[in-house]
Write a structure and sequence with these properties.
heterodimer, A: alpha/beta, Rossmann fold, five-stranded parallel beta sheet, four-stranded antiparallel beta sheet, 6 helices, globular, B: mainly alpha, MetI-like fold, 2 domains, two-stranded antiparallel sheet, 1% strand, disordered C terminus
Chain lengths: 209, 570
């Protein structure tokens, strides 16, 4: 699994593109970093790759996952996970149900709860399945959000400044946790950040927009 | 990709256009045709100005017109002044939540029930007269005073104010929430301006643009209100809207054409009043700027604020007493004048649902539940269509939602009734439900739109990234997260349906009796104990709906802090 951007251009339907044509290849387990001033269109680029582009914007070029062009597919078919600044756990579901939300339907019955339990265990959240997500700490939420994304078996993960709300100590810990999981599972990651320490920790290609 | 949700949007657009906008335009056109002498159903085929000549020569026409303008424009101006003064005094002294709790009963109670209660209260034989007689007044029988149905329409204005001031307080309150009021107030007072003057010179000019549309809705409503005007307004001649209903349902069919001309005139009146209001805004702006630039500090504005606030308090007290009067009378048995309370109580009125209120209640519930359910579905489909197209709402679409609230009901219902007769659904449940949808849907849509858009789109993107289809995103993420606003919108829709008078009366052709139509019909001259039962039921239904809207989400999500407004994700 590799994520490849070929001559990707994003911009308003009528108007100049936000940045020049972008080409980039992220190998399995690597994390590439996009940096640049606010408003340049980093998050819009992630929206385009993930399939969440707002009306009035267009994307051209190709985005390939292991050779499959995803730009023609709807967001839910792309198998591209995403982590935001906030964990975005669904407030009406328990922590366990949040994690199970992304599990394939083919995982049934006891296998479902076993998969959720295992993921919670890996995130240091064993026994949290029935908890209300609103009662979790910031770090716990961030780890639960990563596990939810990973249980959906994504072929790439977009990271939209996911560490920017965490304090310095927690930031390093969560960052290490996320990158380690991507490396072990051989999932390519694309990180948007303002923080050079994030880019250094990611240790992959750095693209300045 | 490009056509995501297009079928849904086209479907919703067709439904809204065909089901809601077209009937209004067609009804208005039909009324217009009849106003100029063309109504084949009664054999009138020649276009002419004769209906207008007849209308102008009808007895009482001029007085009706004057009454409509005075009560409509007067009550709106007063309501705006009172609500602004009350906000200026209470802002910062009362939390948003407690203000909401204070206003809720006044917003929920249907106009007709409130009006009946007010009549029970204010009439010469009413509760207030009984409380102060004979020791203060010397009356041992009801005096011959016109305290309701008075020739100036004062009772009607009081009734309208009790409903409109709370509504304007609500919209001003939510507009103030978007402004840095505290800072502006501090800055103004630091420059030596009195509290009330800062309010008028600094805060209100910023609030006004945000509450303009609700003011127009109030104005349009006050000019064309029917149920409240029948119960409280002058009776001979009545306001124009009531006169139209009388002429239209008179046995003499030659009055139908002038009635249509009057209905057309009613629409022109509303349009003219809004245009005049906009003109007055410009004038007020000029005078206001001149006044502001003189730099007067106006330290003595405080008494004015206290005066307006006292009036608002008296209005609210009257509203609460009116509702109490309904309950007291519905349980009264022997209550001779001038006793302050009934000498004996009875459940007789309540024990006989078969006498009529049972069936009226049933019809009210059927109509209310079906219009609310359909309006909610249509609103969800509309908003989901916008989401899938990832676009906001065009200005024209927004205008369409407000259309039924700005066009006077009587203007197009008259013509629409003719059309419904032609397609053969007049007088049936379907016609009533359809006609009520015209008014229920806009309120449901307005109530649901803001919370729907306030939902963090990242939640939806997260769900899509986890592989959830648009349908699953709607059912498993959006709707459960929106259960509180959905319940509130449903309660508002139900309350609007319960309160509908004219659509039920016209489209039901007198064959469909709801609590509202029965209460209004019985209000004139029937036994107060019977009327009391109908009015209490009519007022109770919206209260129950709002109660359920509060209780349901709290019950479902008792273990989910993020949805109870207690704690939330940072």
């Amino acid at each position: 699994m590799s994520l490849e951007l070929i001559d990707v251009v994003v911009g308003p339907l009528a108007g100049a593109p936000l940045f020049g044509a972008l080409s980039l290849r992220v190998e399995p387990g690597e994390v590439a970093t996009l940096m640049g001033p606010s408003g340049i269109g980093k998050s819009t680029l992630l929206d385009a790759i993930g399939g969440h582009l707002a009306h009035g914007f267009k994307v051209s070029g190709r985005v390939e996952l292991s050779g499959r062009d995803v730009l023609t597919q709807p967001a839910e078919a792309r198998r591209i996970g995403v982590l935001f600044q906030d964990a975005m756990l669904f407030p009406h579901l328990s922590v366990g149900d949040n994690l199970a939300f992304g599990l394939a339907q083919s995982v049934r019955g006891a296998a479902r709860s076993a998969a959720v339990e295992e993921a919670l265990d890996q995130a240091g959240l064993a026994g949290f399945a029935t908890r209300d997500p609103a009662t979790l700490s910031g770090g716990q939420r961030a780890r639960a959000a990563l596990m939810r994304a990973l249980l959906a078996k994504p072929e790439a993960l977009l990271l939209d400044e996911p560490f920017s709300r965490l304090d310095a100590e927690l930031r390093a810990e969560i960052r290490g946790f996320v990158f380690e999981h991507l490396r072990v599972r051989k999932i390519p990651g694309l990180l948007v950040t303002h923080d050079t320490s994030d880019a250094e920790a990611a240790a992959g290609a750095v693209v300045q927009l | 990709m490009k056509v995501e949700g297009r079928a849904l949007r086209v479907g919703v657009a067709l439904l809204v256009m065909g089901g809601l906008v077209l009937p209004i335009i067609a009804g208005m056109a039909q009324t217009g045709r009849a106003a100029f002498g063309v109504l084949p159903a009664i054999g009138a085929t020649e276009p002419s100005l004769e209906p207008w000549r007849q209308l102008f020569s009808l007895p009482g026409f001029g007085t009706s017109l004057r009454l409509t303008l005075v009560t409509g424009i007067g009550s709106t101006l007063l309501a705006l002044a009172l609500a602004s003064g009350f906000c200026a005094l209470m802002h910062g002294r009362m939390s948003h939540a407690s203000m909401g709790r204070l206003l809720a009963p006044f917003l929920a109670v249907p106009h007709a029930a409130l009006a009946i209660g007010l009549a029970f209260l204010l009439a010469p034989s009413g509760w207030i007269a009984r409380m102060i007689s004979p020791w203060a007044t010397g009356w041992d029988r009801p005096p011959d005073l016109a305290t309701v149905h008075d020739g100036w329409g004062l009772a009607l204005i009081v009734g309208l104010l009790i409903k409109e001031v709370p509504f304007l307080l609500l919209v001003i309150g939510s507009a103030l929430g978007q402004l840095p009021v505290r800072q502006h107030l501090a800055a103004g007072r630091a420059l030596g301006y009195g509290r009330g003057v800062v309010w008028i010179k600094v805060i209100m000019p910023q609030v006004y643009p945000l509450i303009r549309l609700p003011i127009f809705i109030v104005l349009a409503f006050a000019l064309s209100v029917v149920d409240m005007a029948i119960i409280l307004g002058p009776s001979n001649p009545p306001t124009l809207a009531v006169a139209i209903i009388r002429w239209f349902s008179a046995p003499d069919t030659t009055l139908i054409l002038p009635a249509s001309a009057a209905a057309f005139l009613q629409a022109l009146l509303v349009a003219g009043a809004i245009v005049a209001w906009i003109g007055a805004e410009r004038g007020a702006k000029r005078i206001g700027l001149w006044w502001l630039r003189r730099g007067g500090r106006g330290h003595r504005s405080e008494p004015g604020l206290w005066a307006t606030s006292s009036v608002v308090s008296v209005l609210m007290l009257l509203g609460v007493m009116a509702l109490a009067a309904l309950v007291v009378w519905s349980f009264a048995w022997r209550w001779s004048y001038p006793q302050a309370l009934p000498q004996s109580w009875s459940l007789k009125g309540w024990m006989t649902p078969g006498s009529g209120w049972g069936r009226a209640l049933e019809a009210t519930l059927i109509i209310g539940v079906s219009t609310t359910a359909m309006s909610l579905l249509l609103a969800i489909a509309w908003l989901e269509g916008e989401d899938r197209g990832r676009r906001g709402r065009a200005a024209w679409a927004q205008a369409l939602i407000y259309l039924p609230l700005l066009v006077p009901q009587v203007g197009f219902l008259l013509g629409l009734n003719v059309l419904f007769l032609q397609i053969g659904i007049s007088g049936g449940m379907v016609a009533v439900i359809w006609a009520q949808m015209l008014f229920v849907f806009p309120y449901v849509m307005i109530a649901l739109s803001d919370p729907w858009r306030a939902l963090d789109p990242h939640h939806i993107r997260a769900a899509a990234a986890l592989g959830a289809s648009p349908w699953r995103r709607l059912v498993a993420v959006k709707l459960p997260m929106l259960i509180r606003p959905l319940a509130t919108a449903a309660a508002i829709g139900f309350a609007v349906s319960v309160a509908q008078y004219l659509p039920t009366l016209f489209m039901g052709a007198g064959r469909i009796a709801t609590l509202t139509t029965e209460a209004v019909t019985l209000a004139s001259g029937s036994d107060r104990r019977v009327v009391g039962v109908y009015a209490v039921l009519q007022a109770a239904l919206p209260f129950l709906a709002y109660g359920a809207a509060l209780a349901l989400p709290a019950l479902v999500y008792r273990n989910r802090r993020g949805l109870l407004g207690v704690g939330h994700e940072p």
